[in-house]
Write a structure and sequence with these properties.
With 150 residues, the protein is mainly α. 81% of the residues lie in helices and 0% in strands. It has one domain. Helix 2 runs antiparallel to helix 3.
Length: 150
């Protein structure tokens, strides 16, 4: 397994970056849909259209991209000599990815179910603010991986 991971390291890394980009794109777009949905009247044609868009975005793009990101990320963690776990940057990156982005993913899934059942109680301004969380996490992750300040 170690030989395979070392041999395919660059392909695994490329796939990871592609999947992360798709995951983040979806997590940046879904809260924007929630902004519009929060202002749509329950049972309206717009609400129905947004429900379809939200469900398809989550199931067809965000969920698979997250799974691929996590699997390929774990492969990179297991690649011999690729990561020095004594450095702080990797732990900050992992925290932001697994707890931060993973937690945000869970919240987006829960909020989508609320909209699906016409149970949303939050205003559009709430989702505008939540839309910034993936961006902030992405900035921290990119700095940790590229600059490695710690």
């Amino acid at each position: 397994m170690a030989d395979f991971l070392s041999e395919w390291q660059l392909w695994i890394k490329a796939g990871h970056v592609i999947a992360v980009m798709a995951w983040l794109a979806g997590m940046l777009y879904l809260p924007r849909l929630f902004v519009y949905h929060a202002d749509a009247k329950a049972g309206s044609e717009l609400s129905g259209t947004l429900k379809i868009m939200e469900r398809r975005l989550l199931r067809a793009i965000i969920n698979p991209a997250m799974a691929i990101s996590m699997i390929l990320g774990i492969f990179m963690l297991l690649t011999p000599g690729l990561i020095d776990f004594s450095q702080l940057w990797i732990w900050i990156k992992l925290f932001c990815a697994f707890i931060g982005l993973g937690g945000m993913h869970g919240l987006l899934s829960r909020w989508r179910k609320d909209f699906e059942a016409d149970r949303n109680t939050r205003p559009a301004s709430f989702y505008r603010k939540m839309n910034e969380i993936p961006t902030v996490l992405m900035i921290v992750i990119v700095i940790m991986v590229i600059v490695r300040p710690f």
